[in-house]
């Protein structure tokens, strides 16, 4: 998807920053892992070995932090950092409009941290192996920049910039679930294609689709113009490809494992593509109610 040149934003205004840990690798913390796995909301159901114990994380060393600077739409079309800032800005704009209108809830804007190495969060210590995630207690999304490379090399997403934006929209979807309260009522101890956990993830995919639908329509306050130009058919098919690339079945078979639906936490490629499409075509939170249907 392409930003209009006129689009504008800064890390300071949009709540986007970068953190770099200076220490070495952090030791895994054992028993806390299960609690953390339930506390955070990830983009994929992959390897959990990067979830580290809250207190037992070892010495991560001093942390360097910077707020990302000013970006134009032209910058965001070429530079990853600016793409993150303006995508986050667009998500604020779109949900700031949709949420009061469709759910009668005012948006409180989440923050966003790009990190490398490991990061200390309100949900405990996490390393790059976790992939992108949302942590409800500090209403913040975390994305390890290395995951973007992995998306291309291991998961085979063919349009990298669009896949990056899709990840942010999915994590923002988890924030919306936090605000609507659905997150608190879902039972995430269960796995499998029809589990609450999978329904939460598919709803986040549906909300990501809603953003793709609205990002070229909701005007930015500063400019009076939408931040993005309408997506092309090729871009929509790339977005579907990105959704498919992170399906549990595709990740399992890609890793040479047996496909075992009972272990799924995020849904199959087909489920993820389907719910993205429901959000994209309908633009309606009610249609994204994955808990209201018998089968997702
Ligand atoms: Zn997720």
Task: Produce a short descriptive summary.
The protein is α+β, with helices and mostly antiparallel strands and about 300 residues long. The protein is built from 11 helices and 11 strands. About 45% of the residues are buried.
Structural key phrases:
alpha+beta; 11 helices; binds zinc ion
Question: Can you describe this structure?
Answer:
This protein is of the alpha+beta class and 296 residues long. The chain has one domain (8-288). It is built from eleven helices and eleven strands. It has helices at residues 11-14, 33-39, 73-78, 80-103, 146-153, 160-180, 182-185, 196-214, 233-245, 248-254, 269-282, and strands at 8-10, 16-21, 41-42, 51-52, 63-67, 70-72, 111-116, 118-121, 124-127, 133-135, 140-144. The longest helix has 24 residues, at 80-103. Residues 23-35 and 53-59 have low confidence and may be disordered. Zinc ion binds at residues 41-43, 170, 174, 201, 204.
């Amino acid at each position: 998807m392409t930003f209009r040149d006129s689009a504008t934003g800064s890390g300071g205004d949009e709540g986007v920053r970068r953190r770099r840990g200076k220490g070495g690798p952090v030791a895994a913390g054992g028993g806390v892992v299960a609690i953390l796995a339930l506390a955070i909301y990830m983009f994929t159901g992959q390897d959990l070995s990067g979830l580290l114990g809250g207190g037992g994380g070892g010495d991560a060393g001093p942390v360097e932090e910077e707020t990302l600077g000013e970006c134009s739409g032209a910058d965001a079309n070429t530079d990853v950092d600016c793409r993150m800032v303006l995508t986050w800005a667009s998500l604020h704009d779109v949900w700031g409009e949709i949420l009061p209108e469709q759910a009668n809830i005012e948006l409180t804007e989440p923050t966003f941290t790009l990190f490398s190495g490991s990061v200390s969060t309100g949900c405990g210590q996490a390393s790059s192996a976790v992939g992108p995630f949302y942590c409800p207690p500090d209403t913040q999304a975390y994305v390890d920049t290395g995951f973007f490379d992995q998306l291309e090399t291991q998961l085979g997403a063919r349009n990298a910039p669009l896949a990056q934006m899709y990840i942010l929209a999915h994590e923002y979807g988890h924030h919306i679930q936090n605000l609507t309260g659905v997150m608190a009522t879902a039972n995430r101890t269960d796995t499998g294609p029809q589990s609450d956990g999978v329904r939460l993830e598919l709803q986040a995919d549906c909300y990501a689709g809603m953003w793709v639908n609205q990002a070229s329509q909701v005007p930015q306050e500063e400019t009076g113009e939408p931040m993005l130009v309408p997506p092309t058919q090729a871009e929509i098919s790339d977005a579907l490809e990105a959704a498919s690339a992170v399906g549990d079945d595709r990740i399992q078979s890609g890793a040479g494992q047996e496909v075992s639906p009972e272990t799924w936490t995020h849904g199959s490629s087909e489920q993820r593509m389907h719910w993205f499409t429901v959000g994209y075509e309908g633009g309606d939170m009610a249609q994204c109610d994955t808990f209201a249907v018998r089968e997702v």
